[in-house]
Design a protein that fits this description.
Helices cover about 10% and strands about 35% of the residues. With about 140 residues, the chain is mostly beta strands. It is globular, with a radius of gyration of 13 Å. The strands form 2 sheets. It has an 8-stranded mixed sheet with strand order 2-1-6-5-9-8-7-11. Strands 4-3-10 form a 3-stranded antiparallel sheet, with no helix packed on it. The longest helix has 6 residues. β3 and β4 form a beta hairpin.
């Protein structure tokens, strides 16, 4: 089963910190309620990352600033345009999230290690609650 193992929100832009949540409200064309990384009206509202990729590079969930850590799937295989139902919310995959230089602040060389494994960005197309443990359905 493909599911959300962790939910994360950032309390402030550029804080480098992601706070774990049991559940969060995804808001249509906005992002996650209370997340400073949400970019309303853009393709970059929510970041999905595969726990398997994080483990492969020795990074704990949440450190790469993802919103949803996904277990049981390689999110990099989700095509742009794919609709994803998570809990009560509906998302559309919009683009690959290329690792930026901030990844090297976590650990030198991590930006390069995360090439093709940072995750996929999405926008919220239907408001709803998402909780850790929720199943992910590709529509």
């Amino acid at each position: 089963m493909v599911r959300v193992s962790n939910v994360w929100v950032s309390p402030a832009k550029n804080s480098g910190r992601m706070d774990p949540r049991d559940r969060v409200q995804a808001i249509e064309n906005h992002g996650l309620d209370g997340c400073a990384h949400a970019r309303p009206g853009t393709k970059r509202q929510v970041l999905f990352a595969s726990v398997e990729h994080l483990r492969a590079v020795g990074v704990e969930p949440g450190l790469t600033r993802e919103n949803f850590t996904v277990e049981g799937a390689d999110v990099e295989q989700w095509p742009v345009g794919q609709q994803v139902k998570v809990g009560e919310a509906l998302f559309e995959i919009t683009m690959v999230c290329d690792p930026c230089s901030r990844m090297d602040e976590i650990r030198p060389g991590l930006q390069e290690e995360l090439m093709n494994r940072r995750g996929m960005l999405a926008r919220v197309i239907e408001t709803g609650e998402v909780a850790a443990g929720d199943e992910i359905q590709l529509l």
